[in-house]
């Protein structure tokens, strides 16, 4: 079944809580229904298109004059298993954290460090969500969806390599942006999990809760997230607003000479990731507001809506912050959040 609604408010469908209106809003309940809609309707008849999951990584600058496609495709299915692994398929509309909890309760490991990340399964491969030393890409084996670039929309399946995963990116966010809609994702999880506890303070937190197992790791991650990141149900935000910038070892070294306490993480291939939250904090923006938008006081990488902020107001604050980081450190901050409109 599909449903097409006109002049639909997106306020409850983006975690920033921005009051934007979508000219057309399509919900679908299955892969087949989406294909059916796309065969009967030409998406190029619409001025613009946007695929919307949980709306946890989006900033609407104004109303959306096109069609928003929101897959409400549910279902979690055990596809295969052996002594060591399970393969589980989840629909694009399944809430990510519900899925993580479900896997943890079954005793299947690999994604427990990604607990409490807001959003739905459909956005997980697009964005290659990551936290606390783990990226979703490490558990994804296939992404299924519909390709729109030809005259006739067709089902496509991408294996892990074809997804071209990178730091908060994939082929779906880059080359295929706007041309591929995820309908389900196949994950491989381990029955004998190896835990990733190297993130600062995680091992201690797990120890305080109890012995190391999937439940205690999930619990520790939830506690760490809650202590740093605002709950989007209470305070509008989209997690990290910027990516951590990546620079060459040479630049990293000269920055370190100037700022010995700058957090840096070598990521191989002669590249180093710099903590954007630290850079922003050093500009003095942490906890400061510009109108109804503010930099979160516990994690400077997060911009919050203090209540009733417009998308433009939030965007403007992000520009002010990025300008100051550029001025102070000569580093360009790239947005992680997808800005919609102008
Ligand atoms: N830091 C500061 N001041 C701040 C924030 C951070 O000095 O206001 C320093 C911290 O002390 C630490 C370093 O920067 O030394 C890194 O901070 P943190 O561990 O909080 O992580 P992050 O690099 O700021 C990234 C992800 C988060 C993810 C955490 C934990 C990105 C863009 N963000 O943040 O992901 O939860 O690591 O793994 O990579 C998200 O993508 O929405 C998100 C929240």
Structure report:
By secondary structure, this protein is an alpha+beta fold. It has 3 domains: 2-71, Uridine Diphospho-n-acetylenolpyruvylglucosamine Reductase, domain 2 (2-Layer Sandwich); 76-190, Uridine Diphospho-n-acetylenolpyruvylglucosamine Reductase, domain 3 (2-Layer Sandwich), CATH 3.30.465; 236-340, Uridine Diphospho-n-acetylenolpyruvylglucosamine Reductase, domain 1. It has 8 helices and 20 strands. The protein has helices at 31-40, 96-106, 123-127, 202-209, 214-228, 249-258, 276-283, 311-329, and strands at residues 2-9, 21-28, 49-51, 58-60, 64-71, 76-81, 85-91, 130-131, 134-135, 140-147, 154-159, 180-190, 236-240, 246-248, 264-268, 271-274, 289-290, 293-295, 302-305, 338-340. The strands form 6 sheets. It has a 5-stranded antiparallel β-sheet with strand order 6-7-12-10-11. Strand 10 and strand 11 form a beta hairpin. The protein is globular. 41% of the residues are buried. The model has no long low-confidence stretch (mean pLDDT 97). Uridine-diphosphate-2(N-acetylglucosaminyl) butyric acid (EPU) binds at residues 131-132, 228-229, 239-240, 243-244, 263, 275, 277-278, 281, 286, 299-301, 336.
